[in-house]
Amino acid sequence: MENWKKATNGKDKMTREQIIDGGLGHFDTLANSLILCFGKEKDVTENTKPIEELDHFFSTCPLFPYTASFIYQRLVERPGDSKMPTLNEKSQLMGNVDQLVLNSHLPFDRRKNWTLLYSNAKHGHSFSQLVKNINGQGPCFIVMRSMRGRRFGFFASHGFLAGPQYRGSAECFLFQLAPKIGTFSATGRTDNYVYLNYQQQQMPNGLGIGGYDNVWPFFIHETFDSGLSQKNSSAFEPCYLADEEHFQIKNIEAWRPGEKPQKTFEEMMAEAERDPERSIIDKDPEARAVMEMAGKTMHSDAYREKKPMLDEK
Asked: Residue ranges of the TLDc domain (predicted)?
């Protein structure tokens, strides 16, 4: 208590009302007062008190817990600065703690609102429906539960665009939610991040991240019944998400954090090339206008039936 007296006398004099009501405006003075009260970092050992003295301190200073709580709320839990995202629908795979952990790893502009793009419980267990719902929709979480009860997934920093090319950046990461929570950052050793492809003869068909051929830390086959999971991928920090090389899918969800970004010219061109059997009139009118400005010839405005995807046959 002697240090407290020093903090409230002389040139460092500061009333209790100033400490409590000053808030952020008196942060420097508050910090100096706390240092005087509890000592600097080098004095931690000297200022350590027996637990009995600490109990006595709290019993004789009943306002201290309220003061500490007030300071914490003013400095950390400011109104409107919630660390929790707002979901447009309830997740069947993520609890509040899961959401909080994942949200803390996102860019700041993607932490406020999350939109459900796909859930096999809601949209049906269909790979084609998953592709339709996530293709070109922006950054995305893929979260799943295996038949063994493990929950895991990954964050696609640039979302998905069906085709043979990898997408994403080192902002991509893997995560595990059960039996324990953990995140695994990109190592920067490869650019093979997010991959989505289907109905190809010589390319892997499915959805995955950080791998190639049959070597992936996370990959779901387009048959949508099973997936691959190898341990300790070079693309990410060491992990073994499924704890089995071949896992079976029970539940899966896709979420977009933040707003849907505008399509880039490259994305518009790729979508047109990826689906040549549909007339451009059925595509995004904005994409058509951009391609016409770029000099890409529109051969026909007639409607043609789209080639069915695997599970639409």
From this structure: 92-258
CB 236 within 8 A of CB 216: no
Q: What is the pLDDT of residue 193?
A: 95
Spell out a b/e string for 10-34, using b for 16 or more CB atoms within 10 Å of the CB, else e.
eeeebeeeebbebeeebeeebeebe
**pLDDT exceeds cutoff 60 at 313:** no
Query: What type of residue is 174?
Result: L
Cα separation, 124 vs 113, whole angstroms: 24
The pLDDT value recorded for residue 133 is 97
SS3 category, 228: strand
Domain locations in the chain?
A: 2-75, 86-257, 265-312
- At 3, the pLDDT band (50, 70, 90 cuts) reads very low
Residue 263 burial (CB count, 10 A): 18
Residue 174, strand partner residues: 154, 184
Tokens representing residue 139 in the block: 């950054």
186 phi/psi in degrees, rounded to 5: -70, 145
Tokens of 285: 């009118």
Q: What is the mean pLDDT of residues 65-74?
A: 67
Residue 268 has pLDDT above 80, yes or no: no
User: What is the rounded distance in angstroms from the CA atom of residue 29 to the CA atom of residue 24?
Assistant: 10
Residue 114: HSE in the Cβ half-sphere, 13 Å Cα cutoff: 25
Average pLDDT, the chain: 77
